[in-house]
Amino acid sequence: MLVTIVGHAGSVPRGTGTQMLLNRAGRVAGTVGGGEAERTAIRLGTAMLAAGESGLHELAQRPRAGEGAACAGGITLRFQYVACGDARWRDVADRALKEMEAGRRVWLIQRFSGGAPALLAEDGAPVSGEAPDDAAALCAAQPVRTQSCFALPLLAGERVVIFGAGHCAQALAPLLCGVGFRVTVYDDRAALADAAHFPQAERVLCAGLDRIADVLPLLADDFIVAMTSTHDGDACVLAQAMREEHAYVGMLGGTAKGAYVRGILRERGIPQARIDRLHTPIGLTIGAVTPQEIAVSIAAEMIAARAARRANA
Fold first, then answer.
1. Which residues of 192-227 are buried (b: 16+ CB within 10 A; e: fewer)?
2. What is the pLDDT of residues 66-75, one digit of tens each?
3. Strands 2-10 and 19-23
4. How far is 234 from 253, CA to CA, in rounded Å?
5. At which of 154, 170, 199 does a domain end?
């Protein structure tokens, strides 16, 4: 059972587009906000799953004593039954994964009539299934609900490329994976560029730092983190990466290192405006000292950057 918030009003923990997946035992993944509303959603969803039914339900969130009216709100949930072995949903899922892994945004179309799902490209063309009549209007940056269907943009977890595989990278990678980033680790030291050190990472690459594009083309949507073993290693990475714009570029190190690397970037012809946007010292200022604390500060800054970027999409 795929449970989707297709509308919300007032103060609610999670907004339109949030999803949760259920099986007969209860919640498998995701959350529609927790609390009584989620418990009710799980109860309704598992009952509908057992009956093989889909439908819409509105749930009111009532404030607890002392919370005040500002905590009241409501959500409209779409319960979508997905039959085991349904070839239409399997094709939608397979194609969605391929498109997202390639960095292309797609839109999942759920029909309120219970008809077949569809997957649309940015121009409204069908990737899987049959497109609705108003397909082009559905492919907006935010979820869109019409009388007949709900269109949800599916965002691939933003890719983070961590250059350097030392202690801080080993602490940072699992944190980023846990909050939905896709992590690639790149280092020129074979002893550290080992998948065993990064079990959650999508890729772990061992290659020289001087010709990154030959090994791993960097994309405009990438989040880049430089934390190699030397100042010159970070400068080498950033001089290549910052030839183009990226979603986020940060470097581990203090003020003196930042000044040194910025000087090299200017010498290499990197525009000053781009240098000014380099996050260094990287991470939020929380007094972090250990690799684990530093990882928390970096992950928090990247979450904020991602949220701002999505809000402006």
1. bbeeebbeebbebbbeebeebeeeeebeeebbbbbb
2. 555 455 689 9
3. antiparallel
4. 10
5. 154
Number of domains in the chain: 3
The CA distance from 62 to 66, in Å, is: 11
Q: What is the pLDDT of residue 69?
A: 46
Same domain, 148 and 229: no
Do strands 149-154 and 118-120 pair parallel, antiparallel, or not at all (unpaired)?
A: unpaired
State whether 74 and 95 are in the same domain. no
pTM value? 0.75
C-alpha 268, offset from chain centre? 32
Do 31 and 175 have their domain in common? no
Residue ending a domain, choose from 154, 185, 207: 154
Question: CB–CB of 153/105 below 8 Å?
Answer: yes
List the strands of the sheet with 26-30, edge to edge.
Answer: 26-30, 19-23, 2-10, 73-80, 55-61
Query: Same domain, yes or no, for 132 and 56?
Result: no
Tell me the CATH number at 176.
3.40.50.720
Q: How many residues does the chain have?
A: 313
Separation between Cα atoms, residue 165 and residue 247, nearest integer Å: 21
147: containing domain: 87-154
For residue range 146-196, list pLDDT tens digits in order: 999 999 998 777 899 999 999 999 999 999 999 999 999 999 999 999 999
> What pLDDT does residue 156 have?
72
Query: Do 240 and 254 fall within a single domain?
Result: yes
Q: Are residues 147 and 171 in the same domain?
A: no
- The answer on 277 and 192 residing in a single domain is yes
91 and 43 part of one domain? no
